[in-house]
Specification:
The protein is an alpha/beta fold. The protein is 45% helix and 14% strand. It has a seven-stranded parallel β-sheet with strand order 3-2-1-4-5-6-7, with helices on both faces. Strand 4, helix 4 and strand 5 form a beta-alpha-beta unit. Helix 3 runs parallel beside helix 4 and helix 4 runs parallel beside helix 6. Bound molecules: NADP nicotinamide-adenine-dinucleotide phosphate (NAP).
């Protein structure tokens, strides 16, 4: 239970809330009293379970289908949320990987990763900026250490996440004077479905390069998100906060 913050009377939109890091953020926001809307695409059962679980917490939680690879789907989401009042917080979390060496990536592998991870996040910010200007809210983009250091086999993914870091920096400069803060969280290796395909040996080898010698948990990233949304971080904007256990 996150008892540190009080987000009562606040509204958040979390993209890709059905699993992993997004799910952790939805739960903690709801525990802190925030009204949360989150999107899912394929994991409807998991999204419904999360909505049920959050009935035990203070903030109402609603799940919306949205395919972040399609502008039309985001437009529909925007129209639905118009009825709910301006949002205070936007957390762009939905993301995918299609890892292969560059010479093996086909056009779809490149475009889909850039579209969902980067272009869709920019488009959602563009749509919801008018809400955030009213509420003087806060945006978090979830990028990755891959966007800072680069990772072999992730040229498409690292490009999308590096782009997100640069987008955050630029947007924070546009919106700072309006009282809207924009930050990025760059996680290292976190235990979610995204990393569950790693072999035991690969995990063991990877942990050797992490100071804390383990993968992180979605809840640990979520705690950073709540800090960045809260007034405790009122003087932080345009930053990429690395949550990687000392990987880089
Ligand atoms: P995950 O467990 O695979 O969950 C991904 C989430 O994104 C799911 O809720 C999924 O929804 C949603 N999503 C994917 N494509 C979508 C689409 N087209 N439309 C709508 N929703 C979509 O991944 P995760 O590990 O939690 O990752 C969350 C974010 O953290 C991503 O941006 C990822 O790049 C970043 N990150 C993760 C790690 C890590 O080690 N796990 C490290 C660095 C950065 P459905 O299942 O409902 O389709």
């Amino acid at each position: 239970m996150n008892a540190t913050y009080n987000f009562e009377n606040k509204i958040a939109l979390v993209t890709g809330g059905s699993r992993g890091i997004g799910r952790g953020i939805v739960k903690q926001l709801s525990q802190a009293g925030c009204r949360v809307f989150f999107t899912y695409k394929n994991s409807k059962t998991s999204a419904d379970e999360l909505v049920d679980e959050c009935k035990n917490y203070k903030g109402d939680v609603t799940a919306y289908y949205c395919d972040h690879s399609k502008f039309d789907s985001i437009d529909e989401l925007y129209d639905l949320l118009q009825k709910e009042g301006p949002i205070d917080y936007l957390i762009n979390n939905a993301g995918i990987t299609k890892d292969k060496p560059l010479y093996k990536l086909n056009t779809e592998d490149i475009l889909s990763v850039l579209q969902i991870n980067l272009v869709s996040s920019i488009y959602i910010c563009k749509k919801f900026i008018r809400h955030l200007l009213v509420t003087k809210g806060s945006i978090i983009n979830i990028s990755s250490v891959a966007g800072i250091t680069g990772i072999a086999g992730q040229t498409n993914y690292a490009s999308s996440k590096g782009g997100l870091n640069a987008f955050t920096k630029s947007l924070s400069k546009e919106l700072g004077r309006s009282g809207v803060r924009v930050n990025t969280i760059a996680p290292g290796y976190i235990n979610t479905d995204m990393t569950s395909k790693f072999s035991k040996e690969h995990i063991k080898q990877t942990c050797k390069s992490i100071s804390l010698n383990r993968f992180g948990e979605a809840e640990e990233v979520a705690k950073t998100a709540l800090f960045l949304l809260s007034s405790e971080s009122a003087y932080i904007t345009g930053q990429t906060i690395i949550v990687d256990g000392g990987l880089i």
